[in-house]
Amino acid sequence: MTAAQRYRVPFQRRGSIVGQADLAALASVVHSAEPLSAGVWRERFEQRFREVTGARHALTVTSGTVALELAVRLLDLKPGDEVIATPQTFQATVQPLLDHDVTVRFCDVDPDTLNMDPQVLESLITDRTRAVLLVHYGGLPADMAAVLARARRAGIVVVEDCAHALGASYRGVSPGALGDIGCFSFHSTKNITTLGEGGMITLNRADWAERVERLRGNEVDGVFAPVPGFADDEPALLPWMRFSADVYRRRAVGIRGAGTNATMSEAAAAVGLVQLDALERFTERRRWIAARLDAAVSAFPGTRLQRTPEGSTHAYHLYTFFVTAGREVREHFVRALDRRGVEVQLRYFPLHLLPEWRLRGHGPGECPQAERVWFDEHLNLPCHPGLSDEQVDHLVESVTAALHEATALAGTGRPLAFR
Ligand SMILES: *Cc1c(COP(=O)(O)O)cnc(C)c1O
Fold first, then answer.
1. Residue of the CA atom closest to atom 13 of ligand 1
2. What is the spatial distance between Cα 126 and Cα 150, in angstroms, rounded to a whole number?
3. Could you list the residue range(s) of the whole structural domain that residue 353 is in?
4. Which of 125, 176, 332, 355 is most exposed, with minimal Cβ within 10 Å?
5. Residues lining ligand 1, Cβ inside 6 A
6. 16 with 167: CB under 8 angstroms?
7. Do 80 and 133 have their domain in common?
8. Is residue 415 domain-resident?
């Protein structure tokens, strides 16, 4: 039995609804005589994405992970450099750093938001720091004014992992247009999808946009110089073949690395465009579910809600709340919800405790708030537009019932070993 069949209210297999309009867009791509790669749909999707987010440059790629990999490539990290990263995110945010001989400084989170704590960030900046990798956790924008003030003072690059945050805003600005580089995911579970996989990278620098353009299109990431004395009016066999003259016109001064193929298919981009137009509707639905859950959870004294700071709007990729009544109550609550057919998840295990980061010298005690919240309090509940009204009713009723049950049972059972 799959989890989708097992749960009456599944956590999140699909983060958006793919419907008739998506299918119509798909059909028009397939039935046209245009290429299925690197064509007009990709450009339209990127153009619309720039309009929606306000980002200066937006380039499609094949996943959020690839966007993050390319972002790290742009940092030109050297041995001994340092990067500050949040531990409270999906592992793809920081995993590209494993390919570099750099020191990662995990920055503890604010337990009320689960976003990077700017005070801690400040204490981690050294003269070797090159970049900050942060996430807008669950779709709640990070404290960007505080982060950017510190980053600008120290001259370091801010990379926003926006995989959760499409549809959110911070002081009226979209994530991805706040820092230097933004990385979005259109994976099946995310707030919009490009048929299951896909991503976007946003940039505020034209030279970085050019590098990403080359990198995603199989071109070498090089530094080139003109060849002196090359005749600019060299005759071409046919006018449009003149581009081949570029090979003679420029020489490589340095090569930073190999390019790759991260081209989003036209079919995916066409669906992305339709999905983007539905984003507001999807986000409204998420907010409506979150408001109902907030009401149910806050009626119970042994809990606290994730705090949305003034000036921010939440995209609710994840609905997050905290059980403060103790680990045992949380465990009873999870079991009680599971029995009612409601799937619960905990996102995410503190990254600095993963084996690959322990091997690099990281471990318990490094981010006390992230660890405490994860091991003792943190919970995520289903919250996505695929849930019907009936499923939302069942979810909300189950949360209330399970919270009562969990309190009554506390002290009577053997808790699960979360640690
Ligand atoms: C989903 C996700 C990614 C990776 O995106 P993919 O498109 O699945 O590669 C990166 N970071 C975070 C925070 C994510 O949730």
1. 90
2. 12
3. 279-409
4. 355
5. 63-65, 89-90, 92-93, 135, 161, 163-164, 185, 187, 199
6. no
7. yes
8. no
